[in-house]
Fold:
Amino acid sequence: MTQTTWHHIHWMRTSAKVSGMRTSLFHIRRASPNDISLLTGVIRTSFIDVATRFGITKENAPSHPSNCTEEWIKKDLGRGVIYYILEHEGEAVGCAA
Structure:
């Protein structure tokens, strides 16, 4: 059995939507290569408010998570990084790697 280290946690910033959720409706699953687009979207969305507030762009901070690309996720998976997706009622609301 392998121990999982959660070194990144990304939560979509939809507090109004999340605040009414019951924890019993959450589901965590291991991501697969089929989830690359989904993971990219969750990560970008999670950091877009920070990027907007501080003027972060692809040009001045290309490695900021708000600029996450599918290639980043593919590269991570290729290196053996394991991603997990947090779902609520079948909708992705967060991820961790």
